[in-house]
Amino acid sequence: MSKTISTEEATRLRQQLMTMARRLRRQGSQDVLPFGLLTVLGAIDRAGGDITPSELARNENMRSSNLAGALRELEAAALIVRRPDPQDGRRVRVGLSDAGRAALASNRHLRDGWLQHALDSLAADERAVLLRAGELLERLAAID
User: Fold this and answer.
1) Which residues are paired to 84 by β-bridges?
2) pTM metric for this prediction
3) For the residues of 31-56, what is the DSSP string, one character each?
4) What residues contact residue 78 under an 8 Å CB cut-off, 6+ apart?
5) DSSP structural state of residue 2
6) Which residue has the higher pLDDT, 32 or 79?
7) Span 20-46, average pLDDT
8) Which residues pair with 93 in a beta bridge?
């Protein structure tokens, strides 16, 4: 039978996760694009590369006005394309352009490169524990 996790343990894990998220965000910030715009590109990519702005705002918990500004910037930089929704011509869908996919891949490469280098500094058994923990974190993130 497993013991219930304490508030202190949950707090410590949350702090550790946030520290890692900030570190990865800092690595991603070394890119020429602002991290906020990269976040929107990533959200479009996770949605399959084709989504309405309202769905995107809802999925990412963003205000429509903030998202609209980001989408304008991304479109001006030719990183996204807008097209009419095939089912409802009044709606617009956004997707990544080839340049948008390349910019996102480049940023992910930056972050992944740092993480790979950092993981290489750990012992093999420590890396194995972290890789297993990653699977558990994915399961946790899926819990409502």
Assistant:
1) 92
2) 0.81
3) SSS-HHHHHHHHHHHHTTS-B-HHHH
4) 97, 99, 100
5) P
6) 79
7) 89
8) 83
